[in-house]
Amino acid sequence: MNADNPDKEMFNRQQTHWENVYTKNQSMFGDDPSIPACKAAEIFKRENMTRVLELGAGQGRDTMFFAENGFEVYSLDYSRPGVESIKRKARESGLINCVTAVQHDVRKPLPFEDESFDACFSHMLYCMPLTTSELESVSKEIWRVLRPGGINIFTTRHTGDPQYRTGIYRGEDMWEISGGFIVHFLSRERIKQLSKGYQIIDIEEFEEGKIPGTDKSRKLFKVAMRKKS
Asked: What GO terms are given for molecular function (predicted)?
């Protein structure tokens, strides 16, 4: 494999990897919402945004938080067990009318009409094994489905993370770390590259979770961008 030409089939195999992980652990990240989702909800409420698109929703801990807080949530994930978990949680919580969960590969166009959503949220989708050109397409698709002035909030592990440049290099600042997970570490410069059509509101650094076998924490950016008219 050419390090500057990432192996797409290898990335496709990550879907099976995540499905196996979710099948073995029904609550891999716990049931409490992520800190970025809590902060995003505050922003969405302050701006009277009600219709939220969530990408890379995993097993639905943030999906359920948004629904419980009165948002209409459309959650997409490319893992079938993840989508099934979201649907089950929505039924059991009596929130099925507030949640729509769909299996979808974000490398393909989003299955929604233009200007369908007030806001978009994704926690660590941008550090999945997506090439830079694929991330540019994701940002463009989010721009398309957001209403004018809509907000896109996402998180990503960044190049200051302790696991950056460790493991097996997979091209374009992507590294296969322990557990078989491929992580795309983004720099501030890369984020600016992905912000075409948006105004960057804020890039906030934060930490989340210990790296297994160490006393170090994962380092992330929380990025908030507003769609330009």
From this structure: methyltransferase activity
